[in-house]
Design goal:
By secondary structure, the chain is α/β, with parallel strands linked by helices. The chain has a single domain (3-188), classed as Pyruvate-ferredoxin oxidoreductase, PFOR, domain III (Pyruvate-ferredoxin Oxidoreductase, domain 3), CATH 3.40.920.10. The chain has eight helices and six strands, in the order βαβββαβααβαααα. The protein has helices at residues 16-29, 77-83, 103-106, 116-123, 132-139, 145-155, 161-171, 177-188, and strands at 3-11, 33-39, 48-56, 69-74, 87-96, 127-130. It has a six-stranded mixed sheet, with helices on both faces. Strand 4, helix 2 and strand 5 form a beta-alpha-beta unit. Helix 5 (132-139) crosses helix 6 and helix 6 crosses helix 8 (177-188). 42% of the residues are buried.
């Protein structure tokens, strides 16, 4: 594998940073060079958060430029729309179909765009949407959306499933490990 450019996009509190740490652990277990860059924005206030994860035989910069992302994992619909132009031709976007209203929508200054997933699918190929929130809830914790999405992504890589599970066991706190392992399986099998 030459390299893999991944973006995790969501809002504060959705677990993008934990997911990026799992991805980093997966890359290290496969002996890849890995770079992770976290851009927090207004994450503590529900603002946009983007994390770049790049790994491969040699990686020089953690940032992913427009049109260079092999995989974009969008934790929320509006974030998918905001970052889709970073997807490269032939790249794959995984979208959690959840909607989280940003502050301008909450205070009535803007409307949440309609039909986001359909619009993205009209203009880009290889778009997969999933109700990750529902799957996480069925596993026992709505905060496991991030791991559901990682399971979905793991299925589309050439990295062995057991490597992902080992990385999750290494990174996720013990008290929520069982729920997160169930969430990974739910995403992987969806």
């Amino acid at each position: 594998m030459e390299k893999l450019n991944i973006m995790l996009v969501g809002v504060g509190g959705q677990g993008t940073l934990l997911a990026s740490r799992v991805l980093g652990a997966v890359a290290l277990k496969k002996s890849f060079d890995v770079k992770v860059s976290e851009v927090h924005g207004m994450s503590q206030r529900g603002g946009s958060v983007v994390t770049y994860v790049k790994f491969g035989s040699k990686v020089y910069s953690p940032l992913v430029e427009k049109g260079d992302a092999d995989i974009i994992m969008a934790f929320e619909q509006l974030e998918a729309l905001r970052w889709v132009e970073y997807l490269k031709d032939g790249g794959k976007m995984l979208i959690n179909d959840q909607k989280i209203n940003p502050m301008p929508v909450i205070i009535g200054k803007a409307k949440y765009p309609e039909n986001i997933i359909e619009k993205v699918k009209e203009n880009y190929n290889n778009i997969v949407s999933i109700d990750a929130l529902k799957l996480a809830k069925e596993c026992g914790n709505i905060k496991a959306v991030n791991i559901v999405l990682l399971g979905l992504m793991a299925k589309s890589t050439h990295i062995e499933k057991d490597v992902w599970i080992e990385a999750i066991k290494e990174v996720v706190p013990q008290k929520v490990l069982d729920i997160n392992l169930k969430a990974f399986e739910a995403g992987y099998n969806s």
